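ugh ok fine here u go
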Amino acid sequence: MFHHQKSKLRDLLCTSLFTLLISMQSYATDSIITIERGYKEIDVVAMNRVESYKTKSQDSIRSFNGNLISKSRMDAFIRYQMDSLNMSGLSIAFVNDDEMVYHNALGFKNIETQERVDNSSIFDAASLSKTVFSFYAMKVVEQGLLDLDTPLYKYMEYPDIAYDERYKLITARIVLSQRSGFPNLRYIDEDGNYDPNRKLTIEFQPGTKYQYSGEGYEYLAKVIAHLKGVEKNELQSLIKTAVFEPLAMEKSSFVWNDYLEKNRVDGHFRGKVNDGYGTSKKYPNFKASSSLQTNAKEYSYFLKALINNKILSKKSHEELTKIQSIKKATKKSTEMRYGLGVIIEASEYGINYSHGGDNLSHTSLYYFNKEKKVGYVFFTNSENRNKFHQNLLDFLLTN
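structure:
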């Protein structure tokens, strides 16, 4: 009987131990399943957040300080600014990294006819032309035809200024960095009046200080045309091949043509139609300093090239965007630093590059940061560039 009870006790213990092991295994399995479910739930939450961020990024514009601004808010901001500033028409685009992330074309080509601005509309770029021409000039440097520091007279004498020996000091670098000593426009006198008989002059020794000059750019354009063996107007075809075609800037042009005749917006000044000083059917010729006709969508492709070091070599991009000259501060203006066709300024979020354009009834501006890979460009057929830009930058940095 003792052995029988011992056997029963052993069986009971074995059964209890087996039951305990099964229970432990079940608990462990359940725990593992629970943990796995927890991780899966965390993964789902994380993925949802990533997808939400991607969606928000795709529907937003990234600003210089990292702000994400929805496209709908940008639409509303632009409409309000156009109304409050009495801007007749606008073409605007934003670049993030290597993409144009926002584009809008709105308002009127002509407030009298009420014809609307659309994606095919072309604006007068005015002095935004200078950056494009400087970019092309660096291409000519890379081709070995032009040296930045060789006096230009050695390539071609310039009868308009040959009477002044100081012109032999002028180089491509001096021209592109606004140190030629030439006035902005030779035919405009001190009072702003047009005088077709005024001759070209040098106002200080070239290379010694900054003075904004379209005349310097026209001199360099003549030299490059000479080196290329073409007429000055034919530089448009060379720029088209070297810059516009690779960047899909299909409608942009430095000379007047049939497409511009049909699609270029009319200028406005103080709420009325005004021809301004820009390129037109009456003044159709190539001007390196001011005749580019384009829109924000196409110019944003050029900004992408500047931001991401495209087409030109790294060395050429560095030349364009390094400080080459400095305009000293005055009672009316702050210090300005200039590269080759580019204004350079420091900010709390890095180095920014810009240039404005103003042909009275057509005004424009671009602004970008290479490190942040952020930028924008806009064109308006009114005189309200400065106030719009100030409001736009404030909006980008505070929203």
